[in-house]
Design goal:
With 386 residues, the chain is mainly α. Helix content is 77%, strand content 0%. The chain has 17 helices and no strands.
């Protein structure tokens, strides 16, 4: 993850442009890698807004004190099988994302992030502390933290590596775009290290919040979280805090996806930010329709056995992202050479993990990425189960 992220951020800062032009800046013959990388967020963003709409629904119903209704076994399936209501929630989520991005990098993305991220972490710590201090929570903490080799194998490792792309926003142009915004004096390695630490820390806290809660309130049964909250004292308050937390997390991700796409439209077609935001809003809303209706009116339509949302997720996450990451490693390792990245990193500070980076980007990362690609495709098509 470090090797891929430092590569993408350095490429973006060196080129000073979004992903669609970044690769062509170094080698015109390899501009296609930028286009491939750009296609990925175009696929992800619309269906991600559908999921964001689902989270919006749960946040709203929790704020209204309706968590008991949401705990019903049929609530979620009943909701997503409708046509109008899920799309209204998508619209609300998409409007919120677009408004932030329309405000610009400093006035929108940066300003909102400096508020949302601390609030997100404070809420996460608060709910985690609440969960682990409940009677019987230590059984869940032990289950979460105690290492177990039961069921552990190559597929476990590959599944974790595959999750890496989503968790660290790799191979979808986001880090290249954000890298292009970074000032030349910013220490790249230090910045990437901070992302690694916070990404891991937040993931750890999320597990510390969810796993003990399930043990305490559902005796280890992996029932859906609304049931867990419904069984708590002050259920409405806790549920509202939790789903607001999840909504904030979803918004931060959607903002980064939309910012990447808006940057592409501004670079490629010389659009103004407002025009690019409106254009992407319309495109995303239209493309979100199949993913939303795929659980309702269009549920009988499948592609390779997938509903629309799962198909878009499979193509982007399991196929295109590993391919884009693999091509990026080959591009840096053997076309423009790693020295380009090393020089860019060292232009703003010491590159302490340079030796690790050189070995990873040329030899280890490409092999791991091919393994991830093969595993992800086989798992997606049902040949492997985890």
């Amino acid at each position: 993850g470090f090797s891929l992220m430092i590569t993408e951020v350095a490429l973006g800062r060196k080129a000073g442009t979004s992903a669609i032009r970044a690769f062509g800046h170094f080698s015109k013959k390899h501009t296609f890698i930028g286009y491939l990388t750009t296609i990925i967020p175009f696929i992800i963003f619309p269906y991600y807004c559908v999921i964001g709409g689902w989270v919006t629904k749960y946040a709203l119903i929790s704020l209204q004190g309706g968590i008991h209704n949401a705990a019903s076994d049929t609530f979620f399936t009943g909701f997503i099988s409708k046509s109008a209501e899920p799309m209204i929630c998508v619209l609300v989520f998409l409007i919120a994302t677009t408004v932030v991005v329309a405000g610009g990098v400093k006035g929108g993305v940066e300003r909102v992030s400096t508020i949302m991220m601390p609030v997100l972490i404070v809420l996460l710590i608060g709910v985690s502390l609440f969960c682990i201090t409940r009677p019987g929570a230590m059984a869940g903490v032990a289950y979460y933290l105690k290492p177990s080799l039961k069921g552990f194998g190559p597929t476990t490792i590959l599944a974790a590596l595959g999750q890496l792309f989503y968790s660290m926003s790799l191979a979808m142009g986001i880090m290249i775009t954000f890298g292009s915004y970074m000032p030349k004096k910013a220490d790249l390695e230090k910045s990437v290290t901070q992302v690694e630490i916070f990404d891991t820390g937040v993931a750890f806290l999320a597990g510390l919040m969810i796993v003990p809660a399930v043990f305490v309130f559902s005796n280890g049964d992996s029932s859906m979280l609304p049931k867990v909250f419904d069984s708590m004292a002050f259920s409405s308050v806790i549920a509202a805090v939790f789903f607001i937390l999840v909504l904030l997390a979803a918004l931060t991700s959607s903002i980064s996806l939309l910012e990447t796409l808006v940057a592409v439209l501004m670079d490629k077609f010389h659009m103004k930010r407002g025009t690019a935001c409106i254009t992407m809003f319309i495109i995303a809303l239209l493309l979100a329709v199949p993913s939303s209706l795929g659980f309702g009116a269009w549920s009988n339509i499948t592609i390779l056995g997938f509903d629309f949302l799962d198909f878009f997720d499979f193509i982007s996450n399991s196929v295109l992202m590993p391919i884009a990451a693999f091509l990026t490693c080959l591009f840096v390792g053997y076309i423009i050479k790693p020295k380009v990245i090393v020089d860019e990193v060292e232009s703003s500070g010491e590159f302490k993990r340079k030796s690790l980076f050189l070995i990873m980007v040329k030899y280890i990362a490409p092999i791991c990425i091919v393994a991830i690609l093969v595993f992800s495709v086989l798992e997606g098509l049902g040949f492997i189960t985890v």
